[in-house]
Task: structure prediction
Amino acid sequence: MLKALQGAVTAAHVDSWTGRREAQVGGMKPAGAPLIALFLACARFNAVTLFADESASDATSGSASGGQAVSELNTQGVRAAQQGQWELGVGYLRRAVKVNPRDVLLRQNLSGILTDWAIQLERSGDAAQAERLLLEAVTDDPDNGVAFVRLGDLAYFRRSDFSGAIASWKRANGKLSPAEWRAVADRISQAQRDATIEQDFVSEGTEHFDIRLSHRGTADLEALGRLLETAYAALVEQLGSGPSKLTVIVYTERDMRRTYYQRDWALGFYDGRLRLLGRELGTDVAPMMVAHELAHAFLQHAYGPALPIWVHEGFAQLQERDPSTRPPAEAGGLAQDVAPAGLRQPRTDDELRLEEAVAGGDAWVPLKWLDRRFAQPSYREDVGRAYVQARLVVAELIRRRGVARFKTFLDAVAKGTPVDAAYDAAFAPDHWAETDRPILK
Result:
């Protein structure tokens, strides 16, 4: 199930410094209305490109030559950062701030570039250095609400430090847009619930996972660790590197319901933290549940927030095989799992009938409307139909056009290309307009 918290999760879509970064996260099915939202990763950045050409330093530097030197340092810093030379860019800006420490715009530029650099480091797995840069960023510009949000995210998602996360998020109040702050306020409420539920939880670590549960008898931690790492390795074969560290919470049924209240149908979901129902971990469902939820985390890490929900859910369902039985990936890997013999079979007669209805066209939903079935279902069957269609469509696109072109589609959408244009370019001669009608026949 894909759970997103509008506004911040766990991975960032990087624009210019005058732009925005947002992140989306996911969770698992089965039938039932999924939780749809996005959570704020980052927000406001300064107009550094303008300041690169028009330094405000001349008025306060004490000399025209000093102002010119500061302006040149700022310009060099901005240009270096725009080329991804973060350390060089920050070095120039630090020198400029040292010459003219009272220049607010210089400090804002330095703070914005430090924040961008921190996001890149966190995505590559260096959370400790990212946190150090963010702390410097908020020192340089105490109004950098984005940096405070990211500090809260690191505390929450990386360390389950609820009080530290909440304190950082609260410092972003008044420094974000109203819509962005509402998203952060929702995250604060979630962290407060988590703090209450997890106050006596114990923790066990593996290479890529921090597993939290009420007591060590709740689940077989060794078996769960192996299952998680096996699923992780299978996804690395298909998508490349994944999140360097993920928190996994194992819940009793009561605590799972307290986490998101009315979601009594959920076996698990991903919202930047992987949340699993403990009673399922000793069953045949466990490998599918883990592979599905972990797929959301990998897609989020690799492609950011822009992918449609139907892509997330379709791809995640294709992972619902025991990773230990999946053959090694070849030619991009994904094709192994979408060949007809590799598709998981419908689990119930109702699901089989629904699959036949979608494939035959009677229950087809135009792809441009399919995300609405996840986000705003009219009734429970809407969601079941959406999951089935998403799985069949993603499998069919890969079967027809191959793994490389499917990844080309994902890359294009991640970089901001509209879904229809990305679809037409990646899957030609197929056209997005044709998806108003069934494409599975």
About this structure: Confidence is low (pLDDT under 50) at residues 4-64, 327-343. The first strand starts at residue 21 and ends at 23. Residues 42-197 form a domain with the Serine Threonine Protein Phosphatase 5, Tetratricopeptide repeat fold (CATH 1.25.40.10).
